[in-house]
Design goal:
Elements (H helix, E strand, L loop, with lengths): L9 E6 L9 H18 L3 E4 L13 H10 L5 E8 L5 H14 L4 E6 L6 H6 L10 H12 L20 E5 L2 H10 L3 E3 L8 H11 L11 E9 L3 H20 L18 H10 L3 E4 L1 H15 L3 E5 L5 H16 L1
Parallel strand pairs: 1-2, 1-9, 2-3, 3-4, 4-5, 5-6, 6-7, 7-8, 7-9
Helix pairs in contact: 1-11, 3-5, 6-7, 8-9
Pfam families: Bac_luciferase
Family: To bacterial alkanal monooxygenase alpha and beta chains.
Organism: Flavobacterium palustre
Length: about 325
């Protein structure tokens, strides 16, 4: 078995379009485009945006619109969804929207699909999401595939534009259920280990063991998403990471807030029980200077044998956030 290293795999970006405390969505979108343009220059493979709703600190609600904005401001970077929460949308609409994107930006658009609502139950209801939507996810994925296929030319319902376009579909997951689906359809698989680490290894094993080759993919292909906060020193990275930890602590406690300014690591902003819950949730988070980041990521890659590493970085100030991605890009080239 080939053992992958950091320099042998592709690296990509997941942008959650986080709104900083004291900032606004306009600032967020400017920073997202800036990050995408730098990522393209530094050799990142793809730039994905996630669909979330009713979250004051996340501005990627209109994911398709934002994908178009990022794609228009770059030239070679693959841009896509990480992901579109398919049960929130009719498959035909998704086929038409991504068909439009793929027509505007040929060979650059990825369509990542998830089954979660990307929000709370009240907002899911406001989205007119059917209570059985998650159960229908596999059938909806296949319906979407049909609309995008050449073979649908005689179908009574067709996607224009979209039909016959080569738009890679990815199955996203944070549990083992999605692994079975990705394997059965012969699609690439992306796991959200940046916030749901518990099932990572089980899901990857299930996906690889059950994978059925398809016209789209002859052998399994896996992305794992992790949190990375890199700086010149371990101490500075730990300071920057306090913003990220506060953000995730808010998710755990139900007190969701915008991304706060960093504080000194020794400032007490959570009790021991909160810290234990946080550490469990952010198990696959890599914080430190270049040497520490490289060592820990190499270990993660060797254990998981992923084909591609996707990284999300929640840092309050834009320049240190860019620098974190630049450090990773340099490590990827060593």
């Amino acid at each position: 078995m080939t053992v992958n290293t950091l320099s042998q795999i592709k690296i990509s970006v997941l942008d959650l379009a986080i709104v900083r405390d004291g900032g606004n969505a306009t600032d967020t979108f400017k920073n997202s485009l800036s990050l995408a343009q730098h990522a393209e220059k530094w050799g990142y493979e793809r730039f994905w945006l996630a669909e979330h709703h009713n979250m004051q600190g996340i501005a990627s609600t209109a994911t398709v619109v934002l994908i178009g904005h990022i794609a228009a401001g770059t030239s070679t970077l693959r841009v896509g969804s990480g992901g579109i929460m398919l049960p929130n949308h009719a498959p035909l609409i998704v086929a038409e929207q991504f068909g439009t994107l793929a027509t505007l930006f040929p060979n650059r658009i990825d369509l990542g699909l998830g089954r979660a609502p990307g929000t709370d139950q009240f907002t899911a209801a406001a989205l007119k999401r059917d209570e059985h939507a998650a159960m229908e996810f596999p059938a909806n994925v296949e319906e979407l595939q049909r609309y995008l296929s050449e073979g649908n030319k005689n179908g009574r319902v067709r996607a224009f534009p979209g039909e016959g376009l080569d738009i890679p579909i990815w199955i996203l997951g944070s549990s083992t259920e999605s692994a079975y689906l990705a394997a059965s359809l012969g699609l690439p698989y992306a796991f959200a280990s940046h916030f749901a680490p518990a099932q990572l290894h089980n899901a990857l094993a299930i996906y690889r063991r059950n994978f059925t080759p398809s016209e789209n993919l002859k052998k399994p292909y896996v992305i794992a998403c992790v949190n990375v906060i890199a700086a010149d020193t371990n101490k500075e990275a730990e300071r920057l990471a306090t913003s990220f930890k506060k953000l995730f602590l808010g998710i755990i406690t139900g007190n969701r807030q915008q991304l706060k300014e960093a504080v000194e690591p020794d400032e007490d902003f959570m009790d021991p029980m909160e810290e234990a819950a946080l550490q469990q949730m952010i198990k696959y988070t890599f914080i430190g200077g270049p040497e520490k980041i490289k060592r820990e990521l190499e270990n993660f890659i060797q254990i998981t044998q992923i084909d591609e590493l996707m990284v999300t970085t929640a840092v309050y100030e834009h320049e240190p956030r860019l620098y974190s991605y630049e450090i990773l890009a340099q490590l990827n080239k060593e």
